[in-house]
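TICKET: design request
STATUS: open
ATTACHED STRUCTURE:
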């Protein structure tokens, strides 16, 4: 018995010596990675400004990147200065381009003179992947959430009817607000079944409100979401049918990932 304990002790001792020798032989260079080399991107002057590799979706000049969702005709929302304002007569607009995974920046403003309550107060939305006409797609809610009570999974910064924002950093009506979004599109198997769900991270006025949230499917006004296979999709902005004054957007850019 004694001998076997001694033998085990000797064995484990030599094991630790061998391990120590291995650590001694390791070099700092062993854990250095030299490629692939990240591409050079010139950042914007501030975090709100588009980096050099961004696709500019709206910079105040025109709506060339956008169409009306209903008939794919040129987008007819109103431009004044560098500001785009929802025109409820024409309905939702979406990008001509289709995207899969991306980083998106946009700014929105509820009119200072907003009226209405709950969901009927500065309601719009960013559909992170538009899945066709109307409100089909995955909606990041836009709403006046400054002293405006509503269901919490319908506040600004929510994934509508799915994810409650982690905080409410909403500014007063009349002030510009920012969304910075990282969207990971869902993937599907060849038979149409879900392979990996969509994920989203959202900073609202620089505050994290959705942290790598896993979506259970596209947004539904009524009922539980269900995934349906799709590919790359446009980004869509909502012209909500409520009677409150239309809100505005500016400085919209996207980086494909
Ligand atoms: Mg909405």
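STATUS: resolved
RESOLUTION: sequence designed for all positions
ATTACHED SEQUENCE:
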């Amino acid at each position: 018995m004694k001998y076997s304990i001694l033998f085990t002790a000797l064995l484990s001792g030599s094991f630790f010596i061998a391990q120590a020798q291995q650590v001694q032989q390791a070099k700092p260079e062993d854990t250095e990675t030299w490629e692939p080399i990240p591409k050079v991107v010139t950042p914007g002057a501030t975090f709100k400004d588009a980096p050099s590799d961004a696709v500019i979706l709206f910079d105040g000049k025109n709506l060339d990147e956008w169409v009306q969702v209903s008939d794919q005709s040129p987008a007819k929302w109103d431009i004044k200065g560098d500001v785009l304002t929802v025109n409820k007569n024409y309905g939702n607009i979406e990008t001509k381009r289709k995207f899969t995974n991306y980083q998106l920046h946009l700014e929105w403003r509820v009119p200072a003179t907003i009226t209405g309550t709950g969901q009927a107060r500065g309601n719009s939305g960013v559909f992170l992947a538009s899945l066709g006409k109307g409100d089909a797609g995955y909606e990041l809610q836009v709403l006046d959430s400054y002293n405006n009570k509503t269901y919490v999974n319908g506040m600004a910064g929510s994934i509508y009817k799915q994810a409650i924002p982690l905080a409410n950093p909403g500014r007063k009506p009349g002030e510009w607000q920012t969304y910075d979004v990282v969207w990971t599109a869902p993937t599907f198997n060849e038979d149409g079944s879900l392979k990996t769900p969509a994920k989203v991270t959202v900073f609202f006025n620089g505050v994290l409100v959705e942290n790598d949230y896993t979506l259970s499917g596209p947004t539904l006004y009524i009922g539980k979401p269900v995934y349906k296979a799709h590919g790359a999709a446009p980004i869509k902005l909502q012209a909500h049918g409520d009677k409150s004054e239309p809100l505005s957007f500016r400085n919209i850019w996207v980086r494909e990932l």
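CLOSING REMARK: The helical segments are 2-25. Residues 145 and 155 are 6 Å apart (CA to CA).
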